[in-house]
Design goal:
Length: 264
Amino acid sequence: MDRFELDWERVADEAAAFIRERMAAARRDTCVIGLSGGIDSAVSAFLAVRALGPEKLTAFTLPYRTSSGQSLTDALSVVEALGIAHEIIEITPMVDAYSGLYPDASRLRRANMMARQRMAVLYDQSERLNALVIGTGNLTEDLVGYTTMWGDMACAFNPIGDLYKTQIRRLAAHLGVPEAVRMKPPSADLWQGQTDEDELGFTYEMADRILLLMHDEGLSDEEIAARGFEAETVSRVRARMQASAFKRCMPPVPRLRHLAAPSA
């Protein structure tokens, strides 16, 4: 039995209904989305158009100077397929204005700055257009912490956040996302030649199969390894999931309001 296979038409309809519900609850009727040229943002865009129509979605492509030209080409193919409004806003001067203060900053710091600057622009545009920001992150990235807090994980709601990357790929095919977008190696495009799977140290396909057993079924590392998975990879996935748990909850606060002042 293929545990990743779903009724994709029902999935698309349910996701579209979810979008309409969230929009109605917020009393908004338009959305903005960061369109990276990758499969996740493309699927979210296709679902938003399915829910609201093309006139209710504005896409933004937010390149940095090291961004791949192919990313823009792929993003534009989604714009053309959907017939949606689109703007390009270069984030290089914004990022460099701050990063120039720290020329020795690590690659990770710079990458996180780019992700957060992109989201700052999207939220400003959402205010300009009286819109909501649509999320574009999948469950695999969320569980292994491959996401930037207050960056790419920020949104008003996320229609694809319950789906593993394997399922995103299948839903994309069902929705008619352009093939070039569906088949390209996943990349946050944070520096030249960067790919998600090189950074993670395992493929999304492998991560999904492990996470299905680990997260959905609650199996131990030993039980998962006994099913034929490399123990080191299982441990790496577990470690990433545990280390990133804080990203998947609201910031904790201490309970203080019950501490009444002493009686006089």
